[in-house]
Amino acid sequence: MYDEYDEILKECLDAKARLVALFGDLETYMEFMMKKQEQRMRQGVKYADFSPYRKQKQETPDVSTSRDTEELPGE
Predict the structure, then answer these.
(1) What is the pTM of this model?
(2) The pLDDT value given to residue 60
(3) Alpha helix stretches (DSSP H) within 1-75
């Protein structure tokens, strides 16, 4: 079991080392990828958002919209 995790960790560290060799550091790589994504979005490419934070935020009810849709007594 640990051998499998050790191999995955080694592959991740190797990938990080290759990215650092290409871009100098990971921040430069992230900037490059964000600019590339923004360019593709301007061209009309759609991206799926799988962020658990945004999903959790969408599931919380919005008080202003729920109050507007309720029927008031006497209407």
Answers:
(1) 0.39
(2) 60
(3) 2-23, 26-42, 52-59, 63-69
Half-sphere exposure of 52 (CA within 13 A, CB side): 0
Other residues' Cβ atoms within 10 Å of the Cβ of residue 29: 15
- HEC string of 32-47 equals HHHHHHHHHHHCCCCC
Token pair belonging to 72: 């008031």
Q: Where are the domains of the chain?
A: 2-60
Q: In this predicted model, what pLDDT tens digit does every residue of 35-64 receive, in sequence order?
A: 998 898 888 877 776 767 666 666 665 555
Q: Both tokens of residue 37?
A: 């994504």
CA dihedral 35, 40, 44, 45 (to 10 degrees): -120
Residues 6+ apart with CB under 8 A from 20: 26
pLDDT given for residue 40 in this prediction? 87
